UniProtKB/TrEMBL annotation:
The lineage of its organism: Eukaryota, Metazoa, Chordata, Craniata, Vertebrata. This is Cell death activator CIDE-3. It holds the Pfam family CIDE-N. Keywords: Apoptosis. GO terms for biological process: apoptotic process; regulation of apoptotic process. Residues 13-89 form the CIDE-N domain. InterPro entries: CIDE-N_dom (IPR003508). It comes from Acanthisitta chloris (rifleman). The keyword Transmembrane helix does not apply.
Length: 176
């Protein structure tokens, strides 16, 4: 069994789930990284007799395999059933999440500083239909760094202008 554990790789981190009993009178939150661990946690937390089975609280789908368990989102509501108990639809479903709202367009502006001497940075992010997103990061460095950059560009343009004037004067002298 030790070899199987080493070959299987590291265990997945535990994730939170909500479990309830068959009549939904008792609800508890548990952390589990695997289906077997979740079954043990649910049985001990809800003080249920062995064996138990798990179903999704919203529609009664049985959670029997590890691969299906890994597809469940964090915070999924599950119902623990012992032998002879069956799932029944809830009259008032508190476990349902509201449907995801997809906006046509959403624009966000984030102002932040990466260094205390910086003037600040602006990140503009536009999301279209909740799927496509574009972002641009405008960085405003500190006043000293900004001034150095401006002087560097000024000196570069002055140097380029000087070279052009010297080249033109030499050419004009040879032409005359």
């Amino acid at each position: 069994s030790m070899t199987q554990q080493l070959l299987a790789g590291p265990a997945p981190p535990p994730r939170p789930y909500r479990v309830c009993n068959w009549d939904r009178s008792l609800r508890k939150g548990v952390m589990a990284g695997s289906l077997a661990e979740l079954l043990r946690q649910a049985q001990s937390t809800l003080a249920m007799p062995h064996p138990i089975s798990l179903v999704l609280d919203e529609d009664g789908t049985a959670v029997e395999t590890e691969s299906f368990f890994r597809t469940l989102e964090e915070g999924t509501a599950l119902m623990a059933l012992s032998k002879g108990q069956t799932w029944a639809a809830s009259k008032l479903s508190l476990s349902r999440k509201p449907p995801r709202r997809i906006d046509v367009a959403c624009v966000t502006f984030d102002l932040y500083k990466t260094h205390p001497k910086d003037l600040g940075c602006l990140n503009v992010k536009a999301t279209l239909y909740g799927t496509y997103s574009m972002s641009y990061d405008l960085r405003c460095y500190g006043a000293r760094r900004l001034m150095k950059e401006a002087l560097r560009w000024t000196l570069f343009t002055m140097q380029a202008t000087g070279h052009v004037l010297l080249g033109t004067s030499c050419y004009m002298q040879q032409l005359l």
